[in-house]
Amino acid sequence: MSKVCVFFGEGYEEIEALTVVDLLRRVNVDTDMVSITGEKSVTGSHGIAVGMDKLLSEVDFDAVDMIVLPGGMPGTKNLEACEMLMEQVDAFVAADKPVCAICAAPSILGHRGHLEGKKATSYPSFEEHLTGATVLREPAVRDGNIITGRGMGGAVEFGLAIVEYFKGTEAKEKLAEAIVY
Question: Is 101 within 8 Å of 79 (Cβ atoms)?
Answer without folding.
Answer: no
